[in-house]
TrEMBL record:
InterPro entries: Anthracycline_SecMetBiosynth, Glyas_Bleomycin-R_OHBP_Dase, Glyoxalase_6, VOC_core. This is VOC family protein. Residues 12-126, 140-255 form the VOC domain. Coiled coil: none annotated. CDD domains: SgaA_N_like (cd07247).
Length: 257
């Protein structure tokens, strides 16, 4: 992405990154699934590559450091103009900072944090690397959603840190907040109550656009992954919840035209 590209409004999910044990096998899986190609990225936390689709940067994959307790999960990075100030606010609002802030070479300044419910997310202050390009195309991340026990407990945290405007779904049996910036939805918070997976706890879910959800789900199994929730129609289109061979969970979706 060039310097002339538009800078993301603070709070916008601008990047997704996955920390794994097996870099080569993971690149093979996502390369075969989404058609990604890879090139080296900043190495501040160890070996790291950026995934490209038709020459556009769409995601990152890094080697999981043995001495750091980072999740084997897709993690969204939220844009900021000042990573250090954002980290201070995260701590003041009850969150925890696990890594950083630190400089990622010339690309930008980053931190990894968790909200009061324990869901992990990144913070990205861009310099040369502004984030995802080629948005909306098959093989790119198109939505990020926080899955947590209830929206009330963490909604105010994200609103305080990133100044989102919240729009709640008015329903007796559906606890959902959409987070808005500049009048547009950028992320969601889904309160699932007792349905929250005990083995994962609160977590962010990344949605990747695909042309055919059913074919993609079958392909994931062929490549050694797993289908956790079969393809179904939902609020974002037809979707399926899946996991890669190392167990990192994500959602594939075919968005409505």
């Amino acid at each position: 992405m060039t310097e002339s590209a538009a800078r993301h409004t603070p709070g916008t999910p601008c990047w997704v990154s996955l920390m794994v044990h097996g870099m080569a096998a993971t690149q093979d899986f996502y390369g075969a699934l989404f058609g990604w190609e890879f090139r080296p990225g900043p190495q501040q936390l160890g070996p790291y590559v950026r995934a490209l689709l038709d020459g556009q940067e769409v995601a990152g994959i890094g080697q999981l450091p043995p001495d750091r307790h980072l999740p084997n999960a897709w993690t969204p990075y939220l844009a900021t103009d000042d990573a250090d100030a954002t980290v201070d606010t995260i701590r003041c609002c009850g969150g925890t900072v696990a890594v950083g802030p630190l400089d990622a070479a010339e690309a930008g300044r980053m931190a990894i944090a968790s909200d009061p419910a324990g869901a992990v997310f990144g913070v990205w202050q861009a310099t040369e690397h502004l984030g995802i390009s080629g948005k909306g195309l098959p093989g790119t991340p198109v939505w990020n959603e926080l899955v947590t026990r209830d929206t009330a407990s963490v909604g105010k945290f994200y609103e305080s840190v990133f100044h989102y405007a919240e729009e709640a779904v008015v329903s007796a049996d559906f606890d959902y907040l959409t987070l808005h910036l500049d009048g547009r939805p950028v992320a969601g918070i889904h309160g699932v109550g007792q349905s929250l997976p005990r083995d994962r706890g609160a977590h962010w879910m990344t949605y990747f656009e695909v042309e055919d959800v059913d074919e993609t789900a079958a392909r994931i199994v062929e490549l050694g992954g797993h289908v956790l929730r079969q393809p179904t129609e939902g609020g974002h289109g037809r979707m399926a919840t899946v996991a890669d061979p190392e167990g990192a969970v994500f959602t594939v979706v075919h968005s409505p035209a």
